[in-house]
Specification:
The structure is a homotetramer.
Chain A (H helix, E strand, L loop, with lengths): L10 E6 L3 H12 L4 E7 L3 H9 L6 E3 L2 H6 L5 E4 L6 H11 L3 E3 L7 H14 L4 E3 L7 H11 L6 E9 L9 H20 L3 E8 L15 E7 L4 E7 L7 E8 L2 E5 L6 E4 L2 E5 L4 H21 L8 H17 L6 E2 L12
Parallel strand pairs in A: 1-2, 1-4, 2-3, 4-5, 5-6, 7-10
Antiparallel strand pairs in A: 7-11, 8-9, 8-15, 9-10, 11-12, 13-14
Chain lengths: ~350, ~350, ~350, ~350
């Protein structure tokens, strides 16, 4: 068990995984987050961990064993940015040490393994794990949530999502359109509505866009039914060719609310009015990542964990599995969830 | 057969049906359309026909028999605005007289009867009938169609429609949400994409909005599959409570294009920026009705008919019937169309 | 004095001047305006008048003398689209004949001559002249005026105008930026506020835009003071290089209201969101011209004249003269108006 | 002279002035800024300094003498948030100690005293002072500046600013509309264009808005001429009654660019589309304050000062004095600046 931190001293974070995301988070902690420092970095490739540590102030330990990094002196909290296949044992180890964790999505690669993590945390009886669903920290999504919770729009009826990427990554597959991309809309839907998704159906456009690599279904229309009888649709277009766009409209009894319009400088030039569309999520959600990390650090400094829970990670995983099961036939796939432990509220 | 019209003299129109729509069209012809006049008005209730004629310049004949009105002196063309159950015999009569017709939607109440009209016109071997799908004459829809036909957006992949009314009419039923409202999206989809709809599925939100009268499914999400493998979704919300909105976004390989944002005065006042949402289609599509009628008059003066065809009326009807069949179970209903007569192009 | 027109028959219009604007108006009357026809066309060059008449239905008289055209059989009203130097005698002739007139702006080339026309109409004791300030018929400007008159924004305090052309016409001069372009903002300002402009000051950007031809001051900032102590500014940019834009924002005690944003299809493509900027006023104000002409025809058919008056034409001219006087030195030039005849209201 | 800071340890900041702004900055440093801590707080009222220190982690010294606070152990940099009348000696003391300074605007209350600070820093031969013109750190302004510097819009010709507050503070006077509000547009104009303002003229609306307290000129139109012959206008409306708005449009040879539209959730409800207008600058510029402070801390940690300079503070003061001189008569007042020391670039 970690030593109690001196009040007022910065939170020591062990960053597990020194790939692109881990390196980004380490840099963010050092350059933009108040009250935290990177106390240790771990990666299976020591050189990679060392490369990240070299960009940080002196005093950051380097490890190849993630659990040793969690046990290193001055470590108060754990940020897991390793490959998703490695998450489960790392999460269980952090639970064993009682440390607050921020785990990049997905919680684990399957609903089954995610449920084991949920059960372990439930046995511990105390929330230690936050999952990296950073959209909840975006200003516009947060304001939308506030409006819904305050009842300003009345009872929600439908949600329309659009999720467009500039180009799909190399080796991107049709199941990954659900697991890596639509998983965000899964979480946003559950969070905004405060209820579970009960069935999924995925319709594909065929032939797909000629911008898509051979074999990739793109675009698709993903339909959710929710426990409250609502209908939610998501356009997922992995190869828009024009930029990154994430939009969301909630249709409610009292009106509709929309977010996601581009908000930069408007230019009138050469016969066109308009502005730039950002190429990727880094531009669109940079501030949300900062706010997510600052919120996690602030809570961890009080020895609390408050953001999206392990249950949210498990439920999202179960919905994604149903979506992937629907893709070949476009049939409606029900989502079955285990009972929700009391730790995660009603 | 009607006498040839003197060149330069106004087109004489017989208005069949003197209810709200018929009266509107008669007033429009007299006050805003160039080159036409109302030569006769017919209604089963003579008093209603006479009331409309009394608002027009002298010389408008009044009839209770629609065919007599079509045969009245000075009648060069027919505008059918009677109840849809009466359309079939009136259309066949106008075909028999060889007169150009503008027929309010729906062409007839069933796909079966609509097909009989199509076959009669095909036998005549000449287009005489235009169906009142006025959205094709809206500036924004027309510009969208131009862009697609010019290939400016590349190959279309999906369309998202939203169709919101302020409040549903009294005695509005769940099938009418398809037959009276979504029928417009059916036509717009076929027209924009230039291909037929092959299957329909209707998902409902349950419980419906509390603004809806007892027994009405509202809102619903209507899904079309098209002959080219595209997916099209339509939100139909008959009781938005806030106004009338019709929006459309085409997602294509080269980008997306959207229409339907409100375009009036922007007011910043009392802590809010924004503007007014019109209450009904009259405000939104007034200009489209003018343009539709002017275009029909201009073509009829050349003895031509060029707008949405009887085939378009038939195909829309067939899609709506599939939609209504899907409503109780949300199952996918294929659309079966008769072979398309050569008169209507490929 | 013209013969009384048969009720219900179309209004016969004499079009004076068969240049571009006159030809446009003749075509508009024949193709889009209800209840009117071109009865005569006059131009100093007979071939030009004949060329316009040849595009119209049979029965349009051709003249070289404008007064003969006004006296031609079937002429009920006069549309003056000749060069502005010829307006005064034509207006006086039409007044002599008691015919309703629509006169393209400017009423006459100088405030002095415009005042003579005002005085002649005042002696006649009856409004016969409408000046072609067509912006008053634009939907957005009309809605703005309605809001102000209804008090929805409270007392107006300032107005910001922007007036941008794609490129200046050949031989366009610095005084023409006021007389031909800003004259519209002069009229809109007087009309929206319902009060006179009392002083003008014109500031120029120096060096001008390199898009401007040698010798043209472009852009300029034109400042009006009004009788009610309000301040109004107008950016005039004759060579924007990117398109035609007319925008207007009224700042009032209860909020602000803005018009003039582009309203067409929004396209997201190639890293940009936005839409097209029209190249010229023809696209922006086509509908306003239709509505202006229809409103003038409708009133003339009742033997009335209701739009912008000869006084409005005179006052605009006087303000423009003050603006031109300010251009060389940027000094504040007061506007002195003759007393307003009672015919034109308070 | 301060002791060299241990590399990697947080920058110790002395906050001078514990009023609202000072307390805000202290909280910001502790909760959102990476790499800094509040090492000392000074205020003439000790209780006020202590109240701020009590909200911070242990170890923050409390002083009544600002120079003692600057000399306190662990102080590496100075943030001046005292009343502007006290700035000059505090700035000179910080220069004497060689510490990096962030000084809230205005640099000093008069151009004369500001020039003395400029001269003192020039004698030191090294930039130590940054002035708190935080708009330069707003994302939208920064993107506009980037576009202009990259030449994406061509040569700038005009700028239109609008600056609207919800309500003026108690005891707000007409000169304060320039000194406290328009001073931001002064700085933004100089920064965006990279040239000095050479003359100012202030036009007032009379009578003012009835929302303004007795004696306050509101709104006003402020006109700048620049060294490059450009014209810049600013609407200042201290009592809009509807919210806080800051907008800016640059008109350039290659097009125009605009910032400042509200960017939150769009709601369609109750017959209106639109969204919320924030009540104050805290909401609009919160992120800009964070970025300003983080940028200053990052530079100070490298012993550098890079933001708006003492010269910028002096020049803004000189322009504001000309503006205040213009207010009574609306006459054009030239701005005379002392020669710019080489320290501040060309």
């Amino acid at each position: 068990m970690a030593q109690p931190r001196t009040p007022g001293s910065p939170l020591g974070v062990a960053v597990i995984g020194a790939g692109r995301i881990g390196a980004d988070h380490a840099r963010r902690i050092e350059s933009r987050i108040s009250g935290a420092r990177v106390a240790a970095v771990a990666d299976v490739e020591e050189a990679r961990a060392k490369a990240v540590a070299d960009t940080l102030p002196p005093g950051c330990a380097v490890h190849t064993d993630p659990v040793e990094a969690m046990r290193a002196p001055g470590v108060d909290a754990v940020l897991i940015a390793s490959s998703s296949g490695a998450h489960e044992p790392q999460l269980l180890a952090a639970l064993g040490l009682g440390l607050p964790v921020l785990c990049e999505k997905p919680l684990t690669p399957t609903a089954e393994s995610a449920l084991r993590v949920v059960e372990a945390e439930a046995r511990l009886g105390r929330r230690r794990i936050q999952v990296g669903f950073m959209r909840r920290y975006d200003r516009q999504y947060a304001e939308l949530k506030r409006m819904l919770d305050a009842g300003e729009l009345g009872r929600p009826l439908m949600i329309h999502h659009q999720h467009r990427n500039l180009l799909s990554m190399p080796r991107f597959t049709t199941p990954m359109t659900i697991r890596d991309s639509v998983v965000h809309e899964v979480d946003v839907t559950r969070w905004l509505l405060g209820e579970e998704i009960t069935a999924v159906r995925v319709l594909r456009v065929d032939p797909p866009t000629s911008r898509a690599p051979e074999g990739l279904s793109d675009p698709q229309l993903v339909l959710f039914e929710t426990a409250g009888g609502r209908i939610v649709d998501t356009e997922i277009l992995a190869n828009s060719g024009f930029g990154y766009q994430v939009r969301c409209e909630v249709v409610a009894e009292g009106g509709t609310a929309r977010i996601g319009e581009e908000t930069g400088v408007r230019v009138d030039s050469a016969g066109r009015w308009g502005g730039a569309i950002p190429p990727g999520w880094e531009e669109r959600f940079a501030e949300a990542y900062d706010r997510e990390l600052q919120a996690w650090v602030d809570a961890a400094a009080r020895d609390e964990v408050t953001g999206p829970s392990a249950w949210d990670g498990y439920a999202a995983q179960a919905v994604c599995e149903a979506g992937v099961a629907s893709q070949p036939t476009a049939s409606r796939i029900p989502v079955h969830l285990a009972p929700r432990p009391g730790l995660y509220g009603r």
